[in-house]
Amino acid sequence: MPRRKGAPEVNAGSMADIAFLLLIFFLVTTTIETDAGLDRMLPPFEPPTEEPPVIKQKNIFTVSINRNGQLLVEEKLMELTDLRKAATAFLENGGDGTCTYCKGKKDPNSSDNPVKAIISLKNDRETKYSTYITVQNELVGAYNDLRNREAQARYGRDFTDMESEYLNPETPTAVRDDLKEKVKKIQDLFPQKLSEAETSGNN
């Protein structure tokens, strides 16, 4: 019987050369992405030349939330349901008589006018986030209530609707141009000066 030949051998002598050529190919053709920063020239540091303006304590409405979620307004306990009313009364107090559109009590011990009035919100490190947001919403609501009132008196519609339409990119340019001046006018009457004080409590 004829002798059967074995399986033909594969010449693997050039496999190393092929692998090396493939490695070079991928190294040359592969694009390596690199993070690119923003190229900005920072202005030189200049110490302030003017002293910060002195703010009277009566123009600051302090609101604090302790670790138990209790509300302290001007260092007195207050229910959340009464906060918006108290903030509104402070903002439009008009103590110095310069605010012709304010309907406040003109208490000399409270804010002089809405432009000078500042609401300072402070919370404890252990304050619940939901409580903090609820309190902040009530304070912003006080601003919006006053702005809506003035917008209705001057333009016959709520400020919040006007602002929403003005900020909508789909609003026609002509309409936005008309709303821009009106929105700014109402914002200037009751500027939102809501300051978040440094958080208190232990680390």
From TrEMBL:
<dbReference type="GO" id="GO:0022857">
    <property type="term" value="F:transmembrane transporter activity"/>
</dbReference>
<keyword id="KW-0472">Membrane</keyword>
<dbReference type="Pfam" id="PF02472">
    <property type="entry name" value="ExbD"/>
</dbReference>
<comment type="similarity">
    <text>Belongs to the ExbD/TolR family.</text>
</comment>
<keyword id="KW-1133">Transmembrane helix</keyword>
<dbReference type="InterPro" id="IPR003400">
    <property type="entry name" value="ExbD"/>
</dbReference>
<dbReference type="GO" id="GO:0005886">
    <property type="term" value="C:plasma membrane"/>
</dbReference>
<keyword id="KW-0653">Protein transport</keyword>
<dbReference type="GO" id="GO:0015031">
    <property type="term" value="P:protein transport"/>
</dbReference>
<keyword id="KW-0813">Transport</keyword>
<keyword id="KW-0812">Transmembrane</keyword>
<protein>
    <submittedName>
        <fullName>Biopolymer transporter ExbD</fullName>
    </submittedName>
</protein>
<keyword id="KW-1003">Cell membrane</keyword>
